[in-house]
Amino acid sequence: MTDANAHPHVSSDGKFALIHNGVIENYSQIKAFLVSENYTFKSETDTEVLCNLIAYHYAKMGAQADGQSPFLESVRKALHHVEGTYGIAALCTEHPGEIVAARKASPLILGVGDDEYLLASDASALVSRTRNVVYLKDGELVHIAGKDFAISTLEQADVSPVVDRIDWSVEEATMDGHDHFMEKEIFEQPLALENAMRGRFSADGSTAMFGGLNLTPEEFRNFNRFMFCACGTAWHACLVTEHLIERFARVPVEVDYASEFRYRNAPLDPNTLFFVVSQSGETIDTLAAMREAKRKGFRVLAINNVVGSSIAREADGGIYQHVGPEIGVASTKAFTSQLLLGAMVALYVSRLRDMSFNDGVDYVNALRGAPELVRRALAQAPRIKAIARRYAHYTDFLFLGRLSLFPIALEGALKLKEISYIHSEGYPAAEMKHGPIALVCEKCPSVFFAPKGEIFNKIVSSMQEIKARKGPVIAIATEGCELPPGLADDVIEIPDCHEAVLPIVATIPVQLLSYYIAVERGCDVDKPRNLAKSVTVE
Length: 538
Ligand code: M6R
What we know:
By secondary structure, the chain is of the alpha/beta class. The chain has helices spanning 27-36, 46-61, 70-80, 181-187, 189-197, 217-222, 232-249, 258-264, 284-295, 310-314, 333-352, 357-368, 370-378, 381-391, 406-420, 456-468, 502-520; strands spanning 9-10, 16-24, 84-92, 98-104, 109-112, 117-120, 132-135, 140-145, 148-153, 158-159, 164-165, 225-230, 253-257, 272-278, 299-304, 317-320, 396-401, 423-428, 446-450, 473-478, 490-494.
């Protein structure tokens, strides 16, 4: 990053300033044209190209804007020539008091405040000033002029604005006494889980209920496959959901990275129900995967946190996570609520099929108990902090788990690498002997998930293989569980719980471990280098 490449960019005639989120794919052709028209450039950015293209159309238009604002029309004309994605806001020296903003495949929200308008790509940036917002749609422009604003499309059609109300408060977007948003969001998970499940169990307490699926139970029952697409942490949540649906409902599930699905043209059974999972609802790959699935005629449901996001608006139905804004770049409460909602979807499908009433009641009671179990896992924080201090200097980590905790091993490795820049890999514990074991030595700790259950002894054997090669071992084990003496250098206990709740509870120690290690290393936890909260470019 250089000063010259930093936004805002200014056109070479000095009249326009532009900020831009997204990628203009055909910028080099446009730049070549503008250079031939004597426009000059100070940076290497596509944004400066777009800014000069607006200036070019403005200069060409003169007063010929058909009664429309020449500022607005020059932005509209320029956007007709660009390929790619954008959320932009432009100023013009000849139109003081005006802003023109537009979006295509990058989020853009207009805040309607008291005597002011605000533009942002995320509602959390606006909420301290206003909770009244307009979620702009793809291909829409907003022209703010003094006290008024007007929305229109690229094709010059007027749009009646719909002002929505953000349903969370400014307090939820502040750190509330914590050192970082990530820390706050880790510790508010019991409440987040309560909010995510509130009102979503049937009156007889034997199944889940969702208001926004736009499918009858009969229609839902008739799907014989499920496909889940997501990115990053949300993809890990899908892997756990796959495990639970297949385990309890015995319906086949496929999970794919959204970025792969959109290009690989997978053959899908026509009777497949498609899910996308995204905290932000703006991840471009997930949005594109969803559009591709819809284009092929599949019904798409979204599990999503941000109300009014692009994914929420375009899905055929869905389930809001209701966990409030997640500000830390590292996803925490959004992840555990996705695990919870995935477990609830598994319950819903199971009860539509073969699961008995009594098993449904047990499952529901287990889910209702999840917030309390998470509180107990969080109570280990001081111990995990002390462990983190002793491990913060290592440069390589393995995270190893099996079955529903294999995705949690992936999540632990992702959390650690994204906020502390330590190389870490998640693996199925038994798969470790097929390659990663070569990394094991006194310099490479392994974090093992060792919950009690059928394969506990197999996990112990894998731990023994690590110990035999002098690898330090941190075990995340069920309270009261007897690990052979000397096998683990450190043990973090988690409460015993139902299979559907175990992944949620087991996530807490790896979130805390990653967080405290990153703090110990002096990393910028909430804004790790090279990462954005929502990835709106391909
Ligand atoms: O907003 P989304 O859930 O679609 O985001 C997907 C990923 O970009 C996100 O989970 C990312 O992996 C996080 N930084 C992980 O902590």
